[in-house]
Design goal:
alpha/beta, disordered N terminus, single chain, 9 helices, six-stranded parallel sheet
Length: about 230
């Protein structure tokens, strides 16, 4: 892991980004939707953040399974999370989450940083998502490459989605810089394939001992300026 990041200058041809948690503040954007899910299931007493984290953990677990859509995974994970918290809820309430996508919000540094980077580099997004759901988000800009689980027919952790990125990048793997926030999807899936990865650790959490170390650690995407010209 490179802690002296300001001494390193990279010259990537493509910079790729994770979306949820890296560009979009997905937790804060979706807690309201999950509060409505819990209210509809008569479970207002539960901590929405703890419920959300368990649901997301189940999502990541299912990313390793044979491909199914993100919508299907989210509904399955909601059913499992209801069961874990001993709630009798309808898993179709996951629609409250999907309905919130247009109201999700970007982190403050995102629009300006992407604008600046796009003048020098090709940009891509790499997301464990369905195409129609990605289109609903406020990330309304044209990327040079869009890599979704739907297009790759697989997700990040087992490398399927990152192999799709590499195969469609139009440059060598060594000329890609990936920026992502998830230890258990971005790092677990991308590092074994030899990708250069900047871990965007917005929440300032510890790196799990089981996870391959990133090449760089930054608190936000604006800090990519420490290793690439903006």
């Amino acid at each position: 892991m490179n802690h002296e990041t300001h001494r390193v200058r990279l010259q990537p041809k493509l910079i790729s980004f994770d979306v949820f948690g890296t560009l979009i503040s997905v937790r804060d954007s979706s807690y309201g939707a999950f509060e409505r899910v819990l209210a509809a299931a008569d479970a207002r007493h539960l901590d929405v953040r703890a419920f959300w984290e368990h649901w997301e953990h189940r999502n990541i677990t299912h990313y390793w399974d044979p491909y199914r859509s993100y919508r299907e995974i989210c509904e399955l994970s909601l059913a499992e999370t209801f069961a874990h918290f001993k709630v009798r809820g309808d898993s179709r309430l996951i629609d409250r989450y999907f309905e919130a996508f247009p109201r999700f919000f970007l982190y403050d540094d995102v629009a300006c940083t992407l604008d600046q980077l796009s003048r020098r580099y090709r940009l891509a997004v790499v997301s464990n998502i369905d195409d129609d759901l990605l289109a609903l988000t406020p990330l309304q800009r044209n990327f040079d490459l869009v890599c979704t689980a739907q297009r790759a027919r697989g997700y990040k952790p087992d490398g399927t989605l990152f192999r799709y990125l590499i195969e469609n990048a139009g440059c060598a793997k060594e000329e890609i810089l990936h920026a992502g926030q998830s230890q258990f999807t971005d790092l677990v899936g991308g590092k074994p394939l030899g990708l250069t990865i900047a871990w965007i650790n917005r929440r300032q959490i510890a790196l799990d001992a089981s996870v391959p170390g990133p090449d760089f650690v930054f608190p936000d995407i604006q800090s990519l300026s420490r290793v690439v010209d903006i």
